[in-house]
Automatic annotation (TrEMBL):
Species: Enteractinococcus helveticum
Name by which UniProt lists this protein: ABC transporter domain-containing protein
Keywords tagged on the record: ATP-binding, Nucleotide-binding, Transport
Classification lineage: Bacteria, Bacillati, Actinomycetota, Actinomycetes, Micrococcales
Keyword Nucleotidyltransferase tagged: no
GO MF, any single term: ATP binding
One Pfam family this sequence matches: ABC_tran
Domain ABC transporter: 13-244
CDD domains: ABC_MJ0796_LolCDE_FtsE
InterPro entries given in the database record: AAA+_ATPase, ABC_transporter-like_ATP-bd, ABC_transporter-like_CS, ABC_transpr_LolD-like, MacB-like_ATP-bd, P-loop_NTPase
């Protein structure tokens, strides 16, 4: 069983009464409706719900990739609501990592250079022991000179995970990170994410539609119609399936 920080520890990410709407008049849609939720430091949390429930919108707002109409979002002790694009870019560069379904690797760069890209953009030095630890943990030591087209899908996603972890971000957002992978490779990536939370203290927030993927998390936040409707602690695939069934998902 994972040891969690005391409830008094500041949240890694928190949203307070956030709303997000698209369109206007008769076409106005509330993607998020007065959502308040917090994520504990070092936890691996999955966000789930029926199609159109607001999962990706919530993640994008939490990460500062999208703005909210009202309410407040904070990453650690920093309130990001109202920040300029430049301020958000600097904050994300230092405190946030991203893992996407499409990998988003630069095809002309080697695996090593793809991993180091955030540091290069920031003009920061490489913490070589940390780089070596991540590469060893992810089993990439013998693939660093390879370009993306020379790597399997699972290896490409491992490079993306390494890139996300290298800057020691406070939180890593993962948007359907196993959606383009076969079940075996997907399980390997999920094990790596769970290990990152458990062994490296990373806070992982993952959007997924897959109950088996969610079972790797410490807890699952459930959305429906743009609102938080429940949370499953220490989830199993069966427990998540049952919770989704109650939502009509």
């Amino acid at each position: 069983m994972k040891t969690r920080l005391a409830p008094t520890a500041p949240a890694a990410v928190a949203a307070q009464s956030i709303t997000k709407t698209y369109g206007s008049g008769a076409t106005k849609v509330a993607a998020l409706n007065d959502v308040s939720v917090s994520f504990r430091p070092g936890d691996f949390t999955a966000i789930m719900g029926p199609s159109g429930s607001g999962k990706s919108t919530l993640m994008h707002c939490l990460a500062g990739l999208d703005t909210v109409n009202s309410g407040q979002v904070a990453i650690g002790k920093t309130v990001i609501t109202g920040m300029s694009d430049h301020e958000l870019t600097i904050l994300r560069r230092k405190h946030v990592g991203f893992i996407f379904q499409a990998f988003n690797l630069v095809p002309t760069l080697s695996a090593r250079d793809n991993i180091l890209l955030p540091l290069d953009l920031a003009g920061a030095k490489v913490d070589q022991p940390w780089f070596d630890q991540i590469v060893a943990t992810l089993g990439l030591a013998d693939r660093l000179a390879h370009h993306p087209h020379e790597l399997s899908g699972g290896q490409q996603q491992r490079v993306a995970v390494a890139r996300a972890l290298l800057t020691r971000p406070d939180v890593v957002f993962a948007d359907e990170p196993t959606g383009a992978l076969d079940s075996t490779t997907g399980a390997e990536v999920l094990q790596l994410l769970a290990g990152s939370a458990r062994d490296m203290g990373q806070t992982i927030i993952m959007v997924t539609h897959d109950p088996h993927a969610a079972a790797y998390a410490d807890n699952v936040v459930l959305l429906k119609d743009g609102a938080i409707v429940g949370r499953v602690e220490d989830p199993t695939a069966d427990a998540v399936l049952a919770a989704l069934a109650e939502l009509g998902a």
